[in-house]
Design brief:
The chain is of the alpha+beta class. The chain contains seven helices and ten strands.
């Protein structure tokens, strides 16, 4: 298997075809392809999340690290025939080797999407250090199953504000969600980091220790049932192929709700 940078459009087409979440991070620097017998079998994107500097400084507030010191895995997906932990850990091993030869960073950071039932087993198999979890909220259109990220809810927030007689709101109100049949769902995100050398591995372990890796029993899913009150629910069944709300600036045509044809 070869690993190499590939054109952005080729990576996006692959991600749109095989990844459960079609929404791409905006701050992407590298598109890395995994190729077997001239066939693209996997893609990893490297960049940063929505708060690049805050992420690294929150992890290490006393070290003076900046965005130059790390990349975050934005998307990682493989063809279904390759979608197992053994292939994934092999691919990550090659990715880390590629990073060490081509980039000058101290850490590779990533998140496992617990709200989608992902514990990060491939990172555990690849010797990443687990940094703990944090709660995250999303919305779900209960009529269609669409998972609505809060950043994609601008038009809903504007409608909610007008409906409530307010100038601006930042989270959809419970009464408005009941009216629109939209659920507010809370779950976990799991944080992992891979230090690029022993010095930084020691630094991470000194700060965070050897935390036990999360398993499926650690997943939680809560649904808001009234203002300020949540109740535990089974894992939600999101339909990741519905795009009634998640179109704005994410590479989806607003009118047709279909992906732009990247060429």
């Amino acid at each position: 298997m070869k690993i190499e940078e590939i054109p952005k459009n080729r990576a996006i087409r692959f991600i749109h075809k095989y990844h459960y979440s079609k929404i791409l991070p905006r701050l992407t620097k590298y598109y890395i392809g995994f190729i077997e017998d001239s066939e693209l079998v996997g893609v990893v994107t490297l960049g940063w999340g929505t708060q690049p500097l805050q992420t690294i400084q929150k992890l290490f507030p006393d070290e003076g690290f900046t965005t130059d010191d790390y990349f975050e895995i934005g998307k990682m997906c493989f063809k279904p025939s390759k979608n197992d932990s053994n292939f994934g850990s092999q691919a990550i091993s090659q990715l880390i080797s590629w990073i060490k030869h081509n980039l000058d960073i101290k850490f590779l950071y990533t998140l496992a999407d617990g709200i989608m039932g992902k514990c990060g087993y491939v990172y555990q198999a690849s010797n990443f250090i687990y940094l703990g979890s944090f709660k995250t909220d999303v919305y779900m259109d209960e009529k269609t199953g669409e998972k609505i990220h809060p950043r994609s809810a601008r038009s809903l927030l504007e409608e909610n504000a007008e409906w409530s007689g307010k100038s601006k709101i930042y989270w959809l109100t419970h009464d408005f969600c009941e009216y629109k049949e939209i659920a507010r769902i809370r779950g976990l995100m799991f944080r992992y980091i891979y230090p690029m050398n022993r010095k930084y591995r020691k630094l991470v372990l000194k700060k965070y220790g050897n935390l036990d890796y999360p398993k499926e029993d650690d997943l939680i899913f809560d649904k808001r049932v009234e203002k300020g009150k949540y109740e535990q629910i089974p894992q939600p069944n999101f339909d990741m192929n519905v795009f009634n709300h998640n179109y704005q600036d994410w590479g989806i045509n607003k009118n047709s709700k279909k992906w732009f044809d990247f060429k």
